[in-house]
Amino acid sequence: MDTWIGLMSGTSMDGIDAVLVSFQGTTVRTHGTHSISYPEDLRHRLMLASQNHATPDEIGELGTLTGLLFADAAESLIRQSDIAVSSIQAIGSHGQTLRHQPSGPGRFSLQIGNPAIIAEKTGITTVGDFRSRDMAAGGQGAPLVPAFHQHFFSSDTEDRCILNLGGIANITWIPSSPDSPVTGFDTGPANALMDAWCQDQTGRPYDDGGQWAQEGIVDQSLLTDMLSDAYFDRPAPKSTGKEKFNLEWVKTLVLRHKKTRPEDVQRTLLQLSVITAVRQMPQSPAMVIYVCGGGTRNPLLMKELSQALSPIRVVDTAKLGINPLWVEPTAFAWLARQTMERKPGNLAEVTGAKGPRILGAIYPA
Questions:
Q1: Helix, strand, coil percentages, rounded to 5, for the chain
Q2: Domains in the chain and their CATH numbers?
Q3: 13 is in an annotated binding site
Q4: Is 123 marked within a binding site?
Q5: Residues 335-363: pLDDT tens digits?
Q6: 0.85 cut: is pTM over it?
Q7: How far is CA 243 from CA 108, 110, 134, 308, in A?
């Protein structure tokens, strides 16, 4: 049995998720999962670097430190698994995004977490740098997970919208008709802004279960200001990140609403995540929404999402056979397999690339 490891750390920069999986047709079997948190000092340095507060020396050092942690996550996963190392074909590592600038003459997407270190420490072939080939072909380099969604989550009986509530929210629209294209894009912020505001105001890295937001009320005037950002009306293909939606973005808007309580800002940010996702979804009477990502652990966020979409059915991806917390790392295990088998990993209609491309750089064992 061939197995694959996927490593993922998202825009929330809270840690690394590792998954060991095998693939059979359109079925995924999960053999093990493991997560590690970033040490707080490293997380703080990553946050600063993502806002351009780091020298080249610091960015180089962060690339090594995160590479070592990605390797540690993979090794810990292997140790707790009953799968033979010889059966692991490759590791797919997304890396840690520091900056994502998909437009302009010097467009780029920067992920750190040196894949060479992962390959060296684990002794397993590692695939990294998934975004740059798509960008070289004129694409946004993101989102890349829709190709995985299409392969494993397609249906010929219902239109499906996969909503990932990570640091940034993105959707993949998978029509039941084979004649209709799959589309996908980043809708805007999800957990990243809520986490950043919670950390700044309370010292806690995130609002556990949305409890703090539940103490507040939506400030409609502040919400209107937030929704006026041009990104939300921009047509796809489009992608974004913390270089756009960050703490300074929130604070700049809050300055115009000085009477708004901190918990009201948190509640408004949660509503922003819901509204921007719902407004940008295609409409279909046969649609079912399947949700994944860390946002599924926020009961208030899920409740507001379900109410905003009613009567459309909202469930998580466990209904499709994959735990909602492990969809993204599983996708990068599959993308590594695509690379090793010399198959495309992007959807050009999603990223805007000139066509399908084999993604990633291979670091042999």
A1: 40, 25, 35
A2: 3-141+326-363 (3.30.420.40), 146-320 (3.30.420.40)
A3: yes
A4: no
A5: 999 999 999 999 999 999 999 999 999 99
A6: yes
A7: 12, 11, 20, 28
